[in-house]
């Protein structure tokens, strides 16, 4: 048997966001065609994978007691234990579904600082211009302020990076995937030295993270992030119907 000890989804189990992965871009960071934010616990996700993708494991999920879909980690009363050195707090987890995509660019995602993924920047970014542009977008639940930081490791090590810090002002309204892509699109538009990172084979790292090359191409083409979000919402309706079958909690 394969046993999964279920755990709360730290950012809640209600919201679904983002595009669906395409099988051509499957990798270690994403194997199956699900959205970026799928709104399931690991136990629910295990059931979905096992049935929908015909894994056929002898799966046993030990379900949670007392958890509800609307709960976030701070509602559980449990202490936060960092699952990764770069996931030090619940604040990091709240923004990660969107801000993680900076890993596929030459902009620092804040690794090497005490606020990874909450702040992003590079020596060539004008943080004040980016913050002003993002505030003008009126992104639900998101606040932006210009920052500067010097990473102790990772991209732009020991160089002063200028950029923005994302603050979650209203967690119920906040959409991390939209916020991350809004920040990425804005920095791409305002920074002439912005680049997508590629491996030695010329494959863009971003495409593996996003599970598609269409996202990168859309940002390059200047397509509005709101339009992208609406397109993705239409594309993932079949997944959302499937998802309903695997919800184990109210």
Q: Strand share of the residues? A: 5-15%
Q: What characterizes the major β-sheet?
A: 3 strands, antiparallel
State the helicity in percent bands.
25-40%
Roughly what is the average pLDDT, rounded to an integer? 98
- Radius of gyration (CA) equals 18 Å
**From the coordinates shown, what is the CATH architecture?**
Alpha-Beta Complex
CATH topology category name: Aspartate Aminotransferase, domain 1
Order of strands in the sheet with the most strands? 5-7-6
The geometry reads as globular
**End-to-end Cα distance:** 27 Å
Number of helices: 9
Oligomeric status: single chain
- Topology, number of strands: 7
- What structural category arises from helix and sheet content? alpha+beta
């Amino acid at each position: 048997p394969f046993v999964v000890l279920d755990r709360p989804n730290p950012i809640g189990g209600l919201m679904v966001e983002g595009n669906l992965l395409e099988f051509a871009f499957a990798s270690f960071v994403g194997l199956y065609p699900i959205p970026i934010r799928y709104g399931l616990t690991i136990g629910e996700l295990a059931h979905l994978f096992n049935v929908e993708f015909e894994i056929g494991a002898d799966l046993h999920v030990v379900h949670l007691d007392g958890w509800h879909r609307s709960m976030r980690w701070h509602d559980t009363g449990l202490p936060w234990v960092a699952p990764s050195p770069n996931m030090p707090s619940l604040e990091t987890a709240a923004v990660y579904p969107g801000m993680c995509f900076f890993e596929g660019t030459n902009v620092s995602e804040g690794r090497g600082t005490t606020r990874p993924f909450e702040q992003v920047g590079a020596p060539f970014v004008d943080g004040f211009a980016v913050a002003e542009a993002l505030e003008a977008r009126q992104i639900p639940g998101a606040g932006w302020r210009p920052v500067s930081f010097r990473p102790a490791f990772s991209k732009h090590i020991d160089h002063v990076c200028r950029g923005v810090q994302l603050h979650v002002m209203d967690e119920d309204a906040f959409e991390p995937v939209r916020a991350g892509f809004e920040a990425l699109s804005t920095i791409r538009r305002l920074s002439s030295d912005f680049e997508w990172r590629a491996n030695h084979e010329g494959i863009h790292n971003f495409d593996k993270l996003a599970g598609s090359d269409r996202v990168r191409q859309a940002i390059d083409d200047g397509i509005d992030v709101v339009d992208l979000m609406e397109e993705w919402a239409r594309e993932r309706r079949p997944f959302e119907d499937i998802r309903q079958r695997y919800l184990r909690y109210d």
